[in-house]
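Hi,

I'm pasting everything inline rather than attaching a file, because the server keeps stripping attachments. The sequence lines come first, and each chain or strand is labelled.
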Amino acid sequence: MNLLIKTIVITTALCLCLCATAQEHHDHENHATPDVHEHHDRNHDGADSGPATHAGHGASDGPILARTQDIDSALAQGGEPIVADVLGVVCDFCALAMNKIFSKREEVAAIYVDLDTKALNLVLVPGASMSDQTIADLAVQAGYRIADVRRGDEALGTAT
Amino acid sequence: MRALLLLALGCLTSIASLARPVSYAGGWTVIGESDRQSSSALVHYTPSPTMSLGLKTEVNRDSDFALYSVHPTFLAKRWFGADYQGNLYFHGGIGVASGISDNDGSDQMAIYGGVMADWETRSVFVGYRNRYLEAGNYASQFMQVFRAGFAPYEGDSGDLHTWLMLEIDHRPSDPDSVTATPLVRLFKGPLLVEAGYNLTVNQPLLNFTYRF
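And the predicted assembly:
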């Protein structure tokens, strides 16, 4: 009887957890992009032939595009640069999750998650586009949340 | 033979329950743990970013029984910040407990559940986990673990990340109910490995997590 009571208690607790989790997931979906601002600047700069570097800061708040070989190569082919500030990215598993989710997308030519700047750096394949909402939704799939998205010259730090 | 295989598995693997028990949507994770009382292996799949569902095998060396269970974990809440992340999880499982080694007891239904919570920045980590296990004639156990640690340097993506941690565990049913284990966590890409030594009962701690 003792076992039965404990079993019922634990099962009830698990059911409550399921309900709470479902509600939380619903909340995430409804508030996935509270601070995302749309940017439509499609201009981008050419490739940087220098070594891979961490992002600096451009004219706007937030880091500019980090440079890796893949990112430079994708930029040289004319892909759109995107920098997204990510909340909660504090470890390599976080970076791995973002990489796995975004790399599956055919629009993405290059990706680098910079833990120092907490920024998701993307370059799209030439001619492809990805909305801020899609970026936010994909970040939620990875378990994180986007705070801001910058594109084009703003992402490259060349906006005036 | 089955007992030998389970013990070998237990010696080789361990469960890093305090390291991201829910992955990204579509991700698989293999986790192992070996502490002063038990060794276990868990494989889980994450269908949504708020839950994972796994199969777990746990060998309790003190009480000579093995546990085979379905193991769901739910992310109840994640707190986000530019420089931190906090998580509250509920975990549980239901399965069968069987005697191993010299324990010829019959199979018993087993059920367990508990709470996990953690908060971390790139250089500070604190975490807590508890579990109540009811395994018929084999065990009625409560345990809780508190862990705190720091990273001596902040590695970037793909770098080797190193953490120094102290784990305090409390198992009221054990003669040594409270023990302390200093450990090192090494983290690179999809692999996390932890190695420590329980100073109270002189037992090693070995954990790993591999995510893909």
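The longest helix of chain A spans residues 2-30.

If the labels don't parse on your end, tell me and I'll reformat.
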